[in-house]
Structure formats: C-alpha cells, structure tokens
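User: tokens in, sequence out, please.
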C-alpha cells in the first residue's frame, strides 16, 4: 500500500517536472524564433543610433541681395536618458560646465519626458556652446555618460534686432503646435518659426531633415557611420527691405526716443516706423520699438527670462497691430474730401481766431489764431479751425466714405504673422452698433482733425500717404519679393497688386501735395528738421490725444514731391509732439535713403509752441456762446450750394453736443 502511494506521488512529480520543461521549452522557442527579430533590433539599438541632421533653414536677403538672416553650424549638448543610470549626478556634473542651474537642466529633461520621447532620443540642453566649453565636456566624458555633443545648423540673425518683428524668431515646437502641425510632417524636437516671416513661410524655408545611422561604443560615443541621408536646405527669401534704411531707422528711433524721454516724456517707450515705395507698395523699412534680438532664442532662453518677458509687449509689432488716432495726418484727407465734394476751393480763405464758432467753440492749437487761412496754409501750419469748418461742411457720412476709399479702417493685405488689425473708421452706423448711441454733429469736429473715435495702424496711415504721393493708386503692401530654391532657381516672384484706383482728380492731389510740401518749408510745422534738406519733402506733423497718458507724436511724409520714391509714417507712443518726437526719425530715414550726409547738429526742439491745455468742458448750465460775426468766416465762394446751415438749422443737435470733449492739439 505504501509502495503504491509512493509510486503515485512520483508520477505526479514527474508530470509536474515535464510540464515545467514543456513550458520553458515553448517560451524559449517563442523568444528564439518568433521574437528573434525584435531582440536583434533591441540589441542593435544598444550600439546603433539614428541621429537626425537638421536641414539648414533658407536664408533671407535684403533688396540688394545682402544676407540678413543666415544659418551657421554650432555644437549642441544633449542628454540620452537610455545611457544615463543616475540622471541627477550627470546633471550635477554638467550644469557648471554649461553655466546653467541644475534646475534649468532638470526642467528641460522633465519637459521632454512629459512628451513621452523614446529613451534613446537625445534631449537638447544647450545650443551654440563655445569651443572652450566643448573641451571641458570632452575632458570629463568619463563622468558624463549619456552626454552627446553634435553639430547642428542654427539660425544666425546677422544684425541682431534688425527688423525683428518683421522677420520673427525660431524655437522648438510645443505640444499644442504639434497637434495642429503633425499632419504636415512636423515632429517632436523640430525647430519652427514662431512669428513674422519665419512662421508665415516656415514650410518653405525649413528644408528636409537628413540623418545618420551611427555605431556607438558603450559610452554612447560615435565609432562608425553606417548610413547617411543628407539634409536638403530650405528655400531662400528675398525681401524688399532696404538694409541701410532699416538700420538708420532703428538707430534714429532709439536715439530720438531716449532724447524725448529725458525731455518731459518719460513714458515714450514704444514707437513704430514704416517706409513704403509709393510706386509699387514695396515695404522698404519696418521697425517697432520695443524690439528684441531673435538670437536670444538660439542658445535656449532660461524659463525665468522667458517669464520676465511676458506682459512687456516685446512681441507686438506696433506697425501692423497698434491702433491709434491719426491726429493731424488725417487733415490731408479732409482737404481732399472738401475739394472733391465742392465744399471749398484752393483760394477760399477762412479766418482762424484761435477758436471755432460752433457748439462749445473748440480751440485751435495756436490760441492767438492763424488769421486768414486757405487750404495751403491750413496744411502748412495745421490750422484746426480750418478743418473744423471742413468737417462741419462735409458731415460724418462723407468723411467716412473718403477714409474708407483710402483704405483706412480695413486691413491693407500685408501677409505677416501676427495678422494685422483692421482699425476703425467712425460713422453713424458704427457708433450705433458699438455704443447704442446716435451720432452728434459736434463729434464730427473732433473727427475732422483726426481725434475722437478714429483708430488706424501706422501701416494703414503710410499706405494712405503713399496713395496721395502717387496720386490715386492704392497698392497692397508687400515685403517678400521672391522665393528662390537652394540651387538658385526662381520658385515664385511677387509683383505689385493694385487694390483700387481712386476716382479723385489730379488737380486735387496737386493742391494737397503742394500744401504738404509747405509743411517742410519756412513757416511749416516741420521746417526745423528739413530746412537744409536738398530734396523737396511733403509732410505732416501730428499730435494725437491719448486718454491713457501723454499724447502720441506722428509724422508722415513722402519725397521727392514731384516724383515720390518713398513714403514714411512714424508714431512715437506718448512722445508728446509729432515734430520733436517723430520728425528727427523721418529726417534720418530720408538721409539714409537718399544718401544725404548727416548734418553736424540737428535741432530737435519743437518747431511750434507747445499745445494749449485741454479746454474745460462747459457745465450743463453754462451759457452757450454765440457764433462770431459773419466776417469770422470769409468765403470767396458765394453760390447757394456752397452755403452751410447755421447752428440753429441743425435740428438733430442735442444738448450733449455742448459737452463733447473736442480740443485742439499742438503739432
């Protein structure tokens, strides 16, 4: 009995052993046969690396085919997690060599790990290290397992902050961008354009990445190249930008703003300047202050520095997205509308006593008045009273129609990122939709001198001035002239595009251009800045009221008057006066464009008296002043169709009109 039990137990044990053997055999067979290729791949992965070779981005050239953005090769330090057993120890050894904090490196590693990158994927830590740093890392290679150094193409912005808002900058793709761009072949680790032309034309200039299959030793160091796929460089962009003009613009903007800040306007921290060719719409220069150096992003911007930059407006292109009231640069448009509508002639005069006679008698910027003023003198000396009268004669509907005709209140069509703002042309309908209020006739006076509800970008203003300069052709501005392949083949040529031809008489343009030319002549508001300039310039100074602080300073111009080759618009936020804040910048730009030798000393004091303080708003119970004697407005036009209704005849004037904050400003 005992013998039978023992025999039974032995059989069970034997069966168990056989079962285990069969299971092990099957598992070994599965691993050796079915999984052979997978394990062979993993084994190869321990000694073979696929190293991506970034394609050089296409270059950017100025209008003279000189490079302004290029690509150079630089050393990049990366970490390969698969080869690092103690990440903290390696970071501790590496951080002093790279002059980075342990925290900065750790955050980069953690950010990469959140993206679930493969463990063999290199995590870039610092780009563009010096030769000295390279030697230090090589000397400590035994203490730095998993630290990889490779040569990669990096962006090189040759002139630093040169046209930075126009050109843009590049940086690593983030998760949100990857979700949208993955379908176009973008992948983790790609360097992409973040704004400006770098972003707008990223697909055309990024090229096609290549790669190497490299055998490495047990420390991850390359031993042998097993395979190679050469990267394909991106296409080149040839811009319309005049490098000499752009450099002069930025230099003068910085110097003039510093001067203005020290002389009563400390908040003049931002500005915009843009120049355009009136003959075709080519942008010759574009600068926005405060600017930035795109090279900052190449070496890897520390998180703390990036956080400090947020909220400062460093990335705002004030030329295309800044919206401002135009001030007196709007007056030439008022003159055009009045002439075209038959509301005034070039020889009609109006007497400026320093105040207008309607409603609450808004002031001219010159309190003593300009005396008898025709349209030429009104533009030359920027007489507010003259244009109050034109506004009263025309009415808001006509003014709005002419503003829209010149492209104000709508995007110009310039292709750029971020996309330009449309601005606002005020009208009865706009005010009703925006404020649910009717339009009061007194508001038209404010609109007539460029104040009030107006809101335009400097790009719209320069395009409007260029349209006056070329006498009626409204172009679509553009900055990209052509795209060329790495082999030098023309891929695309951009030609001028006419948006519309304005139905305005040549005689009207000639009158307005003559008036603007007198602005830079003796007696004009910009004479101080152009008295020794050998080329005739048509200009307009302007001071636009700002409810958030000091007034904005404007200056617009074109030259030569008889054959305009350049039109310019400059705005200095909270710069106070158009002449002193923006005039010197315009002069420096024209000096550079026409190759005029800079004078030894330039007077940047205001060419006219400073503006009067805003007129107090009359109280509700304050008596409304009566119109001046009839001789206050002396008109040589006596036909009935040119006579305007008096104050009493405006049946839709409400009591609120007497409280409208319309004041004159200095130039």
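Assistant: Sequence out:
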């Amino acid at each position: 009995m005992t013998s039978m039990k023992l025999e039974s137990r032995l059989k069970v044990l034997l069966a168990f052993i056989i079962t285990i053997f069969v299971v092990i055999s099957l598992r070994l067979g599965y691993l050796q046969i079915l999984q052979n290729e997978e394990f062979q791949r993993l084994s190869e992965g321990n000694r073979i690396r696929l190293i991506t070779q970034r394609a050089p981005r296409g270059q950017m050239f100025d209008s003279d085919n000189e490079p302004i953005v290029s690509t150079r090769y630089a050393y990049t330090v990366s970490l390969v997690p698969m080869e690092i057993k103690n990440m903290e120890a390696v970071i501790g050894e590496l951080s002093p060599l790279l002059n980075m904090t342990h925290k900065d490196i750790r955050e980069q590693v953690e950010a990469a790990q959140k993206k679930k990158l493969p463990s063999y994927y290199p995590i870039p830590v610092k780009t563009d290290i010096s030769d000295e740093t390279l030697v230090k890392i090589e000397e400590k290679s035994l203490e730095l397992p998993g630290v990889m150094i490779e040569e990669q193409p990096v962006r090189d912005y040759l002139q630093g902050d040169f046209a930075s808002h126009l050109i843009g900058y590049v940086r690593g793709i983030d998760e949100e961008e990857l979700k949208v761009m993955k379908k176009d072949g973008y992948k983790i680790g790609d360097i992409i354009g973040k704004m400006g032309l770098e972003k707008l034309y990223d697909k055309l200039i990024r090229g096609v990445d290549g790669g190497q299959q490299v055998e490495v030793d047990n420390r991850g160091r390359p031993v042998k190249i097993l395979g190679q796929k050469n990267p394909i460089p991106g296409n080149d962009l040839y811009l319309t930008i005049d490098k000499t003009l752009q450099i002069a613009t930025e230099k003068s903007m910085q110097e003039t703003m510093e001067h203005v800040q020290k002389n009563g306007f400390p908040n003049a921290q931002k500005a915009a300047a843009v120049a355009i060719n009136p003959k075709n719409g080519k942008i010759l220069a574009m600068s926005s202050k405060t600017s930035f150096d795109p090279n900052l992003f190449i070496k890897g911007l520390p998180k703390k520095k990036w956080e400090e930059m947020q909220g400062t407006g460093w990335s705002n292109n004030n030329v295309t997205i800044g919206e401002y009231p135009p001030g007196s640069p709007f007056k030439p448009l008022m003159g055009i509308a009045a002439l075209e509508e038959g509301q005034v002639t070039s020889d009609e005069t109006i007497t400026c006593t320093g105040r207008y006679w309607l409603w609450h008698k808004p002031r001219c910027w010159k309190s003593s008045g300009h005396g008898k003023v025709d349209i030429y003198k009104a533009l030359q000396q920027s007489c507010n009273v003259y244009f109050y009268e034109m506004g009263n004669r025309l009415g808001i509907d006509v003014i709005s129609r002419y503003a829209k005709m010149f492209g104000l209140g709508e995007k110009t069509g310039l292709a750029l990122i971020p996309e330009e703002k449309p601005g606002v042309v005020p009208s009865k309908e706009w005010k009703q939709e925006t404020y649910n209020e009717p339009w009061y006739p007194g508001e038209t006076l404010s609109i007539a001198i460029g104040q009030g509800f107006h809101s335009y970008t400097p790009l719209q203003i320069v395009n409007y001035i260029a349209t006056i300069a070329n006498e009626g052709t409204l172009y679509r501005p553009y900055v990209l002239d052509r795209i060329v392949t790495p082999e030098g083949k023309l891929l695309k040529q951009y030609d001028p595009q006419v948006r519309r031809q304005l139905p305005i008489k040549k005689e009207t343009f000639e009158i307005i251009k003559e008036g603007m030319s007198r602005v830079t002549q003796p007696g004009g508001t910009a004479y101080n800045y152009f008295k020794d300039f050998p080329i005739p310039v048509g200009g307009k100074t302007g001071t636009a009221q700002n409810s958030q602080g000091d007034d904005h300073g404007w200056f617009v111009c074109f030259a030569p008057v008889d054959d305009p080759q350049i039109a310019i618009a400059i705005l200095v936020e909270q710069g106070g006066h158009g002449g002193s804040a923006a005039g010197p910048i315009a002069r420096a730009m024209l000096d550079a464009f026409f190759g005029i030798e800079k004078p030894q000393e330039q007077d940047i004091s205001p060419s006219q008296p400073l503006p009067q303080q805003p007129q107090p708003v009359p109280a509700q119970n304050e008596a409304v002043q009566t119109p001046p004697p009839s001789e206050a407005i002396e008109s040589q036009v006596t036909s009935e169709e040119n006579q305007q209704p008096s104050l009493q005849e405006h049946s839709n004037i409400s009591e609120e009109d007497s409280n409208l904050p319309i004041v004159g400003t200095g130039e």
